[in-house]
Specification:
The chain is α/β, with parallel strands linked by helices. Helices cover 43% and strands 16% of the residues.
């Protein structure tokens, strides 16, 4: 049996706590998965001026997938103030490790499942966010670049409703979308819909306002949709999608969006689920993948043993499915739902259970589900 290697990056904040909570699951499932551990995040920055050390990149490259706990990010000035004195003023630039992972590994698709964990299975859909382009492509300027001045001056001559006295009186951010980036994103979205049994893909954009970039995206979306005749394809305004995610989440299958719109909608999806403590994510590229809960480092929860580990367990379920252990992944997903509905909950969901209590209950229930699945479908029998 092929063995897989997973690089575990606990990170900081509550990252180490939720990571420690899920690690016993790997031993309990007795799968051919070897874990390696590496450093990432805020403490690496404070110590060495590099939040992702070179040795960590080497371990990620040697692994089949990466599991990330959580990491802290702070604005540029605050980040430099945290450096040792001998590293300050050396031109070191803090770049979020999450952004580095996505860009360096080419992880263009962020996958955020939205399931009815706390309810009665009324909805199940996925938000897929483009990870590398859009308004988060890095074309963000604190003053208007000289190259853009002619464009702004032309707009001003035609009565644009803004007033400024010079380039320092305005800032600008550009939404970059490329044909290659959108094509691979839309193919990924339709393939995900086909694999997961969804019958609809919705592009969430704002083409009635962002007319040219919206039309560019629509043309590519329509071209890709022709390759998937069995899946309905439609384009909705992103604000309407936000409304209907609240009112009728069951109407969606896959929602795909550029970087910023996808960022907002995916966190809204977490709210629909019941909170960030339940929201997992996966990031995919052509050759690499990493998995993480989306709740961040949550510094107010550090040391209190109340952080909800459910999102981390669901992220592990996505990882297991990616590595080919679909039965164990489904057993784990069911376990999280069973525990959240009927066994115990952490304070973010209104309960009083600790991180460890919820984790132990999920692992116990996951093993029971796995055993039941093997009993119903013995090895070699049709499932």
């Amino acid at each position: 049996m092929t063995r897989h290697r997973v690089c575990v990056l606990p990170g900081d904040g509550i990252g180490p706590q939720v990571t420690d909570a899920v690690l016993p699951l790997f031993d309990a499932l007795q799968l051919p998965i070897d874990l390696t551990f590496a450093e990432i995040g805020w403490e690496c920055w404070r110590r060495d001026g590099d939040p992702v050390p070179s040795r960590t990149w080497a371990q990620i490259a040697a692994a089949d997938a990466t599991l990330l706990g959580a990491i802290t990010s702070q604005p540029l000035h605050e980040a430099e103030a945290q450096l040792p004195e001998h590293l300050r003023g050396q031109g070191l630039n803090y770049v979020s490790p999450v952004i580095q992972l996505r860009q360096q590994l080419g992880l263009y698709a962020n996958v955020r499942p939205v399931t009815d964990v706390l309810g009665d299975d009324r909805f199940c859909f996925t938000v897929i966010r483009e990870n590398t382009e859009g308004l988060y492509a890095g074309l963000d300027y604190g003053r208007v670049p000289a190259e853009l001045e002619p464009l702004l001056q032309q707009r001003e001559l035609h009565g644009a409703p803004w007033t400024r006295n010079g380039p320092d009186d305005a800032c600008v951010a550009l939404r970059l979308q490329t044909r290659n980036g959108l094509t691979r994103l839309f193919h990924f979205a339709f393939e995900h819909a086909r694999q997961q049994g969804f019958d609809r893909v919705t592009l969430a954009d704002k083409p009635n306002v962002l007319r040219h970039s919206g039309a560019f995206a629509k043309g590519i979306f329509d071209e890709v949709a022709l390759h998937y005749p069995g899946i309905a394809a439609n384009i909705d305004n992103v604000d309407a999608v936000a409304l209907w995610m609240i009112r009728r989440p069951e109407r969606f299958g896959v929602v795909v969006a550029e970087n910023m719109f996808g960022d907002i909608l995916s966190d809204l999806g977490a709210g629909v689920m019941g909170g960030l403590g339940l929201a997992p994510s996966a990031n995919f590229g052509s050759k690499a993948a990493y998995f993480e809960p989306v709740h961040g480092s949550a510094p107010s929860y550090v040391g209190r043993n109340v952080a909800n580990p459910s999102a981390m367990f669901l992220s592990v379920a996505l990882l297991l499915d990616h590595l080919g252990y679909s039965d164990q992944a489904h057993a784990l997903q069911r376990a999280v739902t069973q525990v959240a509905r009927r066994v115990c909950q952490t304070p973010d969901l209104g309960g009083t259970a600790t991180t460890g209590q919820v984790a132990s209950a999920i692992i116990e229930r996951s093993l029971a589900n796995s055993l039941a699945s093997r009993t119903l479908h013995p090895v070699g029998s049709p499932s």
